[in-house]
Amino acid sequence: MKCSSVERQEYVSRVLDLYLGLAETPTRSSRLDRRLAEELYEKRIELEEIESAMILASARRLLRSADAPILGPIRSLHYFLPVIDEVRGVPVSSDYIEYLRGKLAAFEEGRRSLYKA
Question: Does pTM top 0.85 for this prediction?
Fold first, then answer.
C-alpha cells in the first residue's frame, strides 16, 4: 500500500511540531531531525507512540530531584528513539500520559512565573 506524499508531510510536520514544542529542545529542527521523522513514518510508528515517548522522556528529565545534576538541552530528535522503542514494547496508559502532561504544564507555568518575577 502506497501512502500519499501529503500524508507523509503531515506526519513529519506533526512529529517535528511535537518535538519543537517541548521544553529544552531547539527552536528549529535540523535536516537530520526531518530525516528521522521520515524514517519513523516509513516504519509506521504511530504518532501516539511518539507523543507518549516524548512526554515520558520530558517528564523524566524535568520532574526529577532538584539535587540531581543539571542536564544539557536536547539537541536532536534522536534523543527520543530509546523511549519510543520502550513505549512500543510496553505501552503507557493514556491516563498516565495525561497525568504527565498536566505535571509538565504545571512545571512550565512555575518556570515561567520565576522568570517574570
Answer: yes
